[in-house]
Amino acid sequence: MKDEQDPINELYRKILQGAAGTGDKEMLARWMARLDVGGEEVSDEELAIEQQASQQALHARFFPPKKHVRFKYVWLAAASIAMVIFSAIFFYNKHSKAPGVQDIVYAENSTASGERKIITLEDGSRISMNSASHIRYTASFTGKSREVYLEGQAYFEVSHDKDHPFIVHAGKLAVEVLGTAFDVRNYQDDADAAVTVTTGKIAVKAGASSDHYVLTRGQQLTYDRQTGSVSHETVGPAEYVAWQQGAFVFREKELREVCRQLERIYGVTIHIKTPALEKKTLNFRIKGENISHVMEMLAASGGFQYSIKERVITLWK
User: Fold this and answer.
1) Is 47 exposed, middle or buried (0-12, 13-18, 19+ CB in 10 A)?
2) How confident is the model at residue 24 (pLDDT cuts 50, 70, 90)?
3) What is the DSSP letter of 160?
4) Where are the transmembrane segments (predicted)?
5) What share of the chain is helix, strand, coil (3-state, %, to 5)?
6) In principle, which of 195, 238, 296, 316 could form an S-S bond with 273, CB 3.0–4.6 Å?
7) Fold topology of 106-240
8) CATH number of the domain at 246-316, please?
């Protein structure tokens, strides 16, 4: 290490003496580029800003108020070193990528409350997005796998490609398929997340476990966010994907869960003033009804009162 350091010390000495040439600075930059300076690329504009900030900071350090001017040359030398270091960082970020390696470009799509959307990916796969959802995916599927990141709820119809698995990352869930159709619900304010298969077969990894759960048509996996527990059962998948046609089915759902979903569907805010109502379970189905009609049905079956003021709904016993 000492043998390697001596030439570097000589380069620093030249810089301090103002005798460093372009080749010397480039050599120091190349040496600095070998250090781990991070993987984020620095633009020319950002580099200039950082250099200016460093000069100002060094000036404040070496020229405190009422200090003797003999520090002038020390500051100039330190500023010169700082500029070389930043040049090294810039050099490293510009030239450290392997030949042929390109930055990954992501595309994103979102839906607002009450909005649904269908998008088609480059490989022909279709994604139906439920309201208040967001997805991110590589704009071009050129890697070994096709990967999508989901917050909210979406129904996936995946084009078959045995050489490029399709992977959906949904919070603590990772769903891997070759070609099939399934629904993923991953709203961060829900108590759980779920995957429901309508056709084909998928493998699901849940939480920190390395285990994979294999699901086939009509099977559903549910992940509890609080406990990290996983359960799976056989269901009628049609009611879990009915939202694509504007229908929503609630079976033994607590009122607070129902209200959260109604907020997404109708773009309203719902307050439950009586805490005892939050865990009251309900069973009902809606399709196309306006929010006033929905609240009328809920109040009748749940035994509570409500008021609607603009887009704010309040419930109480």
Assistant:
1) middle
2) low
3) P
4) 73-92
5) 35, 35, 30
6) 316
7) Jelly Rolls (2.60.120)
8) 3.55.50.30
